[in-house]
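Researcher: Go.
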Amino acid sequence: MSTMSNNSASVRDAVRKLNKYVTNPIMMHLAGRKYWYASVITHAGRRSGTVYRTPVVADRVGHGFLIPLPYGTHVDWLQNVLAAGSATIRSHGVTYNVVGPEIVDAATALPQLDPRHARSFQRFGIERFVALHDAP
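Model: Structure:
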């Protein structure tokens, strides 16, 4: 891995930690509300069964949601959702039960998104998303 890649990974990891311990707790006061951009995904810990709430950017598409994965696919909340096969998303004041999480690439996700959001995610180099479908 080149120095440039190491630096990028270090910066991304530092931002992830800042978000986890500082930004996310603050964001939880607004996430999921009717006029706020961030949503809340509620999921159960895959080992403990503890219920967790995590702020995410969840875009409503068709009969479900797409959530960008700027920190990759190994983040705890995503591993919990994949293990359970379901979660709850509160977005713009409405709560949805979602199932069938699947990792999709940007080529699959971006055409489904509002062009403004798609451009932002492209600019940030987001390569993976999780697709979640409305529960029957």
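Model: The two ends are 45 Å apart (CA to CA).
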